[in-house]
Specification:
By secondary structure, the chain is mainly α. Helices cover 76% and strands 0% of the residues. It has helices spanning 3-13, 22-28, 35-64, 71-95, 99-124, 130-140, 142-148, 151-171, 182-225, 231-240, 253-280, 287-314, 318-340, 346-389, 399-408, 435-462, 469-488, 490-493, 496-518, 526-541, 545-565, 570-585, 587-593, 599-624, 644-664, 673-688, 693-707, 711-728, 736-761. InterPro entries: DUF2157, DUF4401.
Length: 768
C-alpha cells in the first residue's frame, strides 16, 4: 500500500481526518488514479483482452469443427492466423510504431505455434510422446521470446520447459537409477531448472533496472537544472513527472512467480523422502536412503543460504524472504510430523500445533522487523536523493509531509499530529503489514487450527463422546471465548505468539461450530441460516483482520448457497457485485453513518469485507456459475434452470452503478460525452459477454482495484481473469461454437472500442 493511502487510513483510525473529507484527501494525494492514468489503463488492458480473445476464438472454432474439417482446412486456418500475426509484427517493426502491440503479437504468434504443433500431431498421429509437443513448442518460440522481451512470454516459455521435463521424466527409464528414486530425480531436475531460471531472471531485471535508473536520474537532473525561482513549480514537475527511482526493495512481478516455483520445488525435494515414506508406510531407512536424504537436506540448506544472502544481506525483498520462511516451516513440520504422528496420538497433534504457531510467530516478527527497517531506509534514501537536488523532500514521501499538506488544505485541524503505527508492535495492523505476511500468518493459523481440532477430536473420540453435537457446540464456544479474551487483552494482542494462538483457537472453534451445526438433525436450509448468523456475529466480535476476512467469506458463501437452494442463483452475481462496489467505492460514506463509538470496529470490518466480497465474486463468477454445476448446490428435486440474461442484466446494472460512483470522484456530469461513452462500453461488454459472465465480473474487480489503487485486489482480479480463460474451455453449459463466436465478438468489440477511445482522446486528452 502506498504511503499516502496508508497515512489516510491511519488518520481516519486515529479520528484526525473526518471521514467526510477522506475522498477529498485521496483525490489531492492522487490515491485515486488521474485521468491520464485511466487512459493508459484502458489502452493497455483493452489491447491485451482483445488480442487474447481473438486467439481463443480461433482455438475454440478449430476444436468445434475438428471432425468436420479436412486436413487442408485445419492447417490453412491455423497457418493463415500465424502468417497474419507475423506480417503485422513485421509491418509495425519497420514503421517503429506501437511497441506494446508488437510484443503481444509475438505472444499470440507463440500461442498459435503451439496450436499448429498440436494440430500436426493430432492429424498425422505421429505417435510422439506428449513431452515432445511442449519441448518442440518451447524450442520453436525461442527467437520470439528473445525478441519480444515480454515477461508473460518468458513465463510461458519457462512453463513449457517445466511441463516437458515433468512429462519426459515420467516416461523415461534411467537404468542407473533405482525406480524408487525416479520421483526424486524429477523434483531435483525441476528444482535445478527453476533455480537457474530465477538467477537468470534476477540478472535480466538487474540490467533493465540499471538502464531505467540511469534514464530516471538523467530526467531528474534535467528537471533540476531547469529549476526556476518558483520552487512550487519545480516540485510540481517532480511529482507529476513519470520518474520512478528504484527503491531498496521491489522486483518485477514475474520474478516473484519464478521465485515461487523455485521455492516449491526445492522444498518438495527436501521433504519428498519423508512424503514417500509416509505414503508407503516404510518407517526405516537404509544407507542409501540416509545418504540421499542428507544430500537433499544439504541442497535445500544451500538454497536457503543463497536466498538469505541475495534477498536479505545484498538486497532486501520481503516476499522472497517470506518464501524462505514458508519453506523452512514446511520442511520442519514434515519431519516433525514423521516423528510425532507414527501412531496418530493426540499429544503429537498438540505439539505440532504449538510448533507451527511458534515458528510462524517468529517468522512474522522477523519479517515485520525487516519491513520496518526497510521502510525507514527507503524513506531516508528518497529524502536524501531529493535533498541533494533541493533542500526539500518529495511532498508525498512521508506521513508528516502528507499531514502538512492536508492541514494547508483545511481538511484536518492545524493542531493535529499523527501517531506512527509500528507494525512490529501491532500484529493485527492491516495497513502497516504487507499482504503476503497477512496471507502467511493466516495460512499458518488455519493449519494450526486443524492440528488443534485433530488434538481435541482424538481426545473426544477416545472418550467416546465426539459424536455429540451439544458437546461440539460447547467446545466451539469455549475455544472462541478463549480466543476472544486473548485478542482483547492488550499484552497478548501485542505479542505475536499469543496472537497466533488466539487465531488458531478461534479457527478451531469455528470448525467445531460447523461440526455441531451440520452434524445435527437440523433440516436444510435451517442449518445454513444458523451458520450464516453465527458467521455474522463472529465477524463483528473477533478483532482480527484475517479471521474477519475468512468469516465474512463464509457468510457470503452461505448467502450464495441459500440463493441456489431457493432457486434464485441468478441473484448471486448481481448481489455480490453490488456488495463489492458499495464497500470498496462507498466505504467512507457508509462509515460516516456509523456512530462514533462503533466507527473503529466498523472501519476494521469494512477493510476485511472489501477483500472477502471481491474474492467471493471472483470465485462464483469464475468457478461456480456454470449451470451444469447448479444441481450440486441444492437438494431439491425441482429442475434447475439458470437464466443467463437475467443474471447478466443484474451484473450490468451493478457495473453501471460502480461506474457512476467512480465518475462522481471527478468533475464529470452524467450527460457528458465521456460518461455516455463509459456507460455504453459497460452495456456493450455486458451484452456480448452474456455467456461469458466471468469476463465482466473479473473486469469489474480489476477496475475497482485500479480506482482505489489496491494492488493486491488488482492482482487477484488479473489472476481470476487468466484462470477463467482456461476454465471457460471446459465449461459444458455452452457449445464450442458459441464460445468461439462470443470470443470473436468480444475481441473485435474491445479492439474497436480501444480504437474509438484512442481516436477521441488523440492519445493526449484524458478519458474523463
Amino acid at each position: 500500500m502506498s504511503t499516502p493511502r496508508r497515512t489516510i487510513e491511519h488518520l481516519i483510525e486515529q479520528s484526525i481526518l473526518p471521514i467526510a473529507q477522506a475522498n477529498a484527501a485521496a483525490t489531492h494525494l492522487e490515491v485515486f488514479p488521474t485521468k491520464r492514468s485511466w487512459l493508459a489503463f484502458f489502452d493497455k488492458s483493452s489491447l491485451i483482452i482483445g488480442m487474447v480473445a481473438l486467439v481463443l476464438s480461433l482455438v475454440f472454432f478449430i476444436a468445434y469443427n475438428w471432425l468436420h474439417m479436412g486436413k487442408i482446412g485445419k492447417f490453412a486456418l491455423v497457418e493463415s492466423a500465424l502468417v497474419i500475426t507475423i506480417a503485422l509484427y513485421i509491418i509495425l517493426s519497420f514503421k517503429q510504431k506501437f511497441q506494446p502491440v508488437q510484443q503481444w503479437l509475438l505472444f499470440i504468434t507463440s500461442i498459435i505455434t503451439g496450436v499448429l504443433l498440436a494440430l500436426f500431431g493430432q492429424v498425422y498421429q505421429t505417435g510422439a510422446d506428449t513431452w515432445q509437443l511442449f519441448f518442440n513448442w518451447a524450442l520453436f518460440i525461442i527467437p520470439w521470446v528473445l525478441i519480444a522481451r515480454l515477461p508473460v512470454l518468458w513465463l510461458l516459455w519457462l512453463g513449457l520447459v517445466n511441463a516437458s521435463l515433468i512429462l519426459y521424466l515420467d516416461v523415461a527409464d534411467f537404468l542407473f537409477i533405482d525406480a524408487n528414486y525416479q520421483s526424486m530425480l524429477q523434483v531435483g531436475a525441476l528444482a535445478l531448472i527453476n533455480f537457474v531460471a530465477l538467477n537468470a531472471w534476477l540478472l535480466s531485471i538487474k540490467n533493465t533496472a540499471e538502464l531505467q535508473t540511469d534514464s530516471a536520474h538523467s530526467e531528474f537532473a534535467n528537471i533540476t537544472n531547469s529549476k526556476t525561482a518558483n520552487s512550487e513549480n519545480f516540485y510540481s514537475k517532480i511529482v507529476h513527472s513519470k520518474i520512478r527511482l528504484p527503491t531498496a526493495s521491489g522486483l518485477h512481478w514475474s520474478v516473484y512467480i519464478v521465485g515461487l516455483l523455485s521455492s516449491y520445488f526445492i522444498t518438495h525435494l527436501a521433504i519428498i523422502n519423508v512424503f514417500d515414506n509416509l505414503i508407503f508406510g516404510n518407517s526405516t531407512f537404509n544407507n542409501t536412503d540416509i545418504f540421499i536424504t542428507l544430500s537433499t537436506i544439504l541442497i535445500w540448506l544451500g538454497w536457503c543460504g543463497f536466498m538469505l544472502w541475495r534477498f536479505y544481506k545484498r538486497h532486501i525483498d520481503l516476499l522472497m524472504l517470506t518464501y524462505v520462511c514458508g519453506s523452512v516451516i514446511a520442511v520442519v513440520m514434515f519431519w516433525a510430523g514423521k516423528l510425532l504422528l507414527k501412531d496418530w496420538e493426540a499429544g503429537g497433534m498438540l505439539i505440532l500445533a504449538l510448533l507451527l504457531i511458534a515458528m510462524s510467530s517468529i517468522a512474522v516478527v522477523w519479517l515485520r522487523r525487516i519491513a520496518h527497517v526497510d521502510n525507514i531506509n527507503s524513506e531516508a534514501e528518497l529524502t536524501a536523493r531529493t535533498r541533494d537536488n533541493d533542500e526539500k523532500s518529495n511532498p508525498n514521501s512521508n506521513p508528516n509531509q502528507i499531514l502538512a499538506q492536508l492541514q494547508q488544505l483545511g481538511l484536518i485541524s492545524p493542531s493535529s499530529t499523527i501517531q506512527t503505527v509500528d507494525s512490529m508492535n501491532e500484529p493485527d495492523n492491516h495497513d502497516s503489514t504487507p499482504w503476503f505476511i497477512h496471507l502467511f500468518f493466516g495460512f499458518s493459523g488455519i493449519l494450526a487450527s486443524i492440528f488443534l481440532v485433530g488434538f481435541l477430536t482424538l481426545i473426544l473420540y477416545q472418550a467416546d463422546i465426539f459424536d455429540r453435537p451439544n458437546l461440539q457446540w460447547i467446545v466451539g464456544i469455549v475455544l472462541s471465548m478463549i480466543a476472544f479474551a486473548l485478542f482483547k487483552h492488550r499484552k497478548s494482542r501485542n505479542n505475536t505468539f499469543w496472537n497466533s494462538l488466539a487465531f488458531a483457537l478461534s479457527g478451531a472453534g469455528q470448525l467445531y461450530f460447523a461440526f455441531s451445526i451440520f452434524g445435527s438433525e437440523m433440516d436444510t436450509p435451517l442449518d445454513v441460516w444458523l451458520f450464516l448468523l453465527l458467521q455474522i456475529i463472529m465477524t463483528m466480535l473477533i478483532p482480527n483482520f484475517i479471521y474477519r476476512l475468512l468469516s465474512s467469506m463464509a457468510a457470503l458463501g452461505s448467502v450464495v448457497y441459500l440463493l441456489s437452494f431457493y432457486q434464485l442463483p441468478e441473484l448471486s452475481l448481481g448481489l455480490l457485485a453490488l456488495v463489492t462496489i458499495v464497500v470498496n467505492l462507498q466505504g467512507y460514506a457508509l462509515l460516516n453513518i456509523v456512530p462514533a463509538k462503533l466507527r473503529f470496529t466498523a472501519f476494521s470490518i469494512s477493510k476485511a469485507l472489501n477483500y472477502s466480497s471481491a474474492i467471493m465474486l471472483l470465485c462464483v463468477s469464475v468457478y461456480f456459475i456454470a449451470a451444469e454445476y447448479g444441481n450440486s448446490f441444492i437438494s431439491s428435486e425441482a429442475t434447475f434452470r439458470y437464466h443467463y440474461i437475467l443474471a447478466q442484466g443484474l451484473l450490468i446494472l451493478a457495473s453501471l452503478y460502480g461506474g457512476y460512483l467512480i465518475l462522481k470522484r471527478y468533475p464529470v456530469h452524467l450527460a457528458a460525452k465521456s460518461s455516455v461513452l463509459i456507460g455504453g462500453i459497460i452495456i456493450i461488454m455486458g451484452i456480448i459477454s452474456v455467456y461469458v459472465s466471468g469476463l465482466l465480473a473479473t473486469s469489474l474487480i480489476i477496475i475497482i482495484a485500479f480506482a482505489n489503487s489496491q494492488r493486491v485486489l488488482l492482482g487477484l482480479g488479473v489472476l481470476a481473469l487468466v484462470s477463467y480463460i482456461f476454465w471457460y474451455y471446459y465449461q459444458l453449459d455452452t457449445s464450442l461454437l458459441v464460445k468461439s463466436g462470443s470470443m470473436l465478438i468480444i475481441g473485435l468489440t474491445v479492439l474497436m472500442m480501444r480504437w474509438i477511445l484512442m481516436r477521441q482522446t488523440n492519445h493526449k486528452a484524458a478519458i474523463l
